[in-house]
């Protein structure tokens, strides 16, 4: 009899959910085709109608006109360089890393403060090097799409004297190229967290160290960016000598599951169902379509509703203006296989490598099965020798600190709790310049190479609370923020 992974392991209501999911995907695909065939005039008409309905039933935002103007400019920025230019950073560099298995990864560099003369591209600055990596379904833009520069980790670090690099995963907006496979092929998208750990992270770090001629760098990861580092450091012992400190923001290693019981149970029962629903290429690629046709506040509410449903994240610390600016940069391409890998981890309750076997857990534990006792390989995270600083929100549903304490070497751990913080709050929250960034800076100063090169005025981050560009001067972030590219786009919170 043919092996059906989900047969007899789903309840009746889960089959109903699966059917509804298929119907939604079919409807969405048909809608996508219709939208592509419509003239721009018709699409604009629907956009304006959705805008008028939203304003009629919900009302206008209470944020200031200046804040809305800045949010709109950030929302419309096409790429990483355009986002940085809004805040006066015209010294941004773009580099391409060739991984050992043939993927081309776009990575970005902010070599210094906004007013510092631009160095020769690709040259060493002699400064301490920091590498930042994004989370699942994201790219490097998530670090620089904030509505105030003092809340942006890379901008703050660049002003303090760090050589800042930002990485990208294979398949996303800046890394959709391979010397072996076309991005329209199934083989191009045949990658999981394993491939990020075996290639993307270590190959990017090696490239950066070659360019900067530094002996080691500091790693700051967010969400899956921490997962990839945990995995990479565990399977590459030599990599631990090249990373002087690993700062994990909202770390994810083996989450317990989703907050939506129906979706959680369905995906854990058979993670490969995602292949049936989304195919074997990029997952949720239609998000860009919805983003282009919906009035931005409606798109924000749609994302908010999805995050509440799936993760119970209300993101109350992220202002609506910040969401308007950032949500358009939230999604980037990722493989369905990498998401399937996450549900395998949740189902097994272990931080395991991708499982290619089609056998069910019941068959694996059966004494009649020749595969009895089979379990996918686990990432040996206790082998990590790098110093680890964890910053986590105590109401983040994806963080299991108890599991991390069990899986990581205790003598290398420095765990810091952020009261009331959820997942995205650590990246875009209104008070990250007070609660998060000072701790990142202090950890970097403690472990980075040549800390004497870093500006010492960091305590101001704790004592100053303004979110206006003028406040950047008080923070020791250099002169002229108020006279630069954002003079007409003063920021504020709601």
TrEMBL record:
BP-aspect Gene Ontology terms: lipid catabolic process
Topology of the protein relative to the lipid bilayer: Single-pass membrane protein
Pfam family, one: Abhydro_lipase
Residues in Partial AB-hydrolase lipase domain copies: 81-145
Cellular component per GO, a single term: membrane
InterPro entries, per database record: AB_hydrolase_fold, AB_hydrolase_lipase
Superkingdom per UniProt: Eukaryota
Record-annotated membrane-spanning stretches: 15-43
Main localization category: membrane
Compartmental location: Membrane
Molecular function per GO: hydrolase activity
Record keywords, A-Z: Hydrolase, Lipid degradation, Lipid metabolism, Membrane, Transmembrane, Transmembrane helix
Annotated protein name in UniProt: Triacylglycerol lipase
């Amino acid at each position: 009899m043919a092996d059906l992974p989900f047969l007899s392991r789903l309840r009746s209501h889960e089959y109903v959910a699966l059917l509804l999911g298929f119907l939604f995907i079919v409807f969405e695909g048909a809608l996508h085709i219709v939208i592509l065939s419509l003239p721009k005039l018709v699409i604009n008409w629907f956009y304006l109608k959705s805008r008028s309905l939203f304003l009629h039933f919900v009302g206008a935002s209470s944020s200031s006109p200046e804040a809305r103007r800045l949010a709109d400019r950030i929302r419309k920025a096409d790429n990483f360089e355009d986002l940085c230019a809004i805040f006066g950073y015209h010294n941004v560099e773009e580099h391409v890393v060739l991984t050992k298995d043939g993927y081309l990864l776009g990575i970005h560099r902010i070599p210094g403060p906004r007013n510092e003369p631009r160095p020769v591209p690709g040259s060493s600055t002699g400064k301490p090097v920091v590498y930042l990596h994004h989370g699942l379904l994201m790219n490097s833009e998530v670090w620089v799409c904030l509505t105030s520069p003092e809340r942006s980790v890379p901008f703050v670090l660049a002003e303090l004297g760090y050589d800042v690099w930002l990485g990208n995963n294979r398949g996303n907006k800046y890394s959709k190229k391979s010397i072996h496979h076309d991005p329209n092929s199934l083989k191009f998208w045949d990658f999981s967290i394993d491939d990020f750990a075996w290639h993307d992270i270590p190959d990017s770090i090696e490239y950066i160290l070659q360019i900067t001629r530094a002996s080691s760098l500091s790693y700051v990861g967010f969400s899956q960016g921490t997962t990839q580092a945990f995995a990479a450091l565990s399977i590459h012992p030599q990599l631990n000598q090249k990373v002087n400190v690993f700062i994990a923001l909202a770390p994810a290693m083996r989450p317990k599951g989703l907050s939506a019981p129906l979706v959680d149970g369905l995906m854990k029962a058979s993670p490969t169902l995602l292949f049936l629903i989304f195919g074997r290429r990029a997952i949720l690629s239609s998000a860009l379509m919805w983003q282009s046709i919906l009035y931005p506040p409606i798109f924000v509410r749609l994302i908010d509703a999805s995050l509440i449903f799936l993760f119970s994240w209300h993101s109350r610390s992220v202002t609506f203006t910040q969401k308007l600016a950032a949500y358009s940069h939230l999604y980037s391409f990722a493989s369905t296989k990498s998401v399937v890998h996450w549900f395998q981890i949740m189902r097994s309750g272990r931080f395991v490598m991708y499982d290619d076997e089609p056998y069910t857990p019941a068959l694996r534990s059966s004494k009649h099965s020749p595969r009895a006792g089979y379990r996918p390989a686990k990432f040996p995270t206790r082998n990590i020798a790098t110093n680890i600083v964890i910053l986590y929100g105590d109401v983040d549903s994806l963080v299991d600190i108890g599991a991390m304490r069990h899986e990581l070497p205790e003598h290398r751990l420095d765990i810091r709790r952020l009261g009331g913080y959820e997942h995205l709050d650590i990246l875009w929250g209104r008070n990250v310049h007070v609660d998060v960034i000072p701790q990142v800076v202090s950890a970097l100063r403690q472990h980075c190479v040549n800390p004497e090169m870093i500006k010492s005025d960091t305590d101001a981050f704790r004592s100053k609370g303004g979110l206006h560009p003028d406040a950047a001067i008080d923070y020791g972030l250099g002169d002229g923020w108020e006279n630069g590219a954002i003079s007409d786009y003063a920021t504020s919170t709601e």
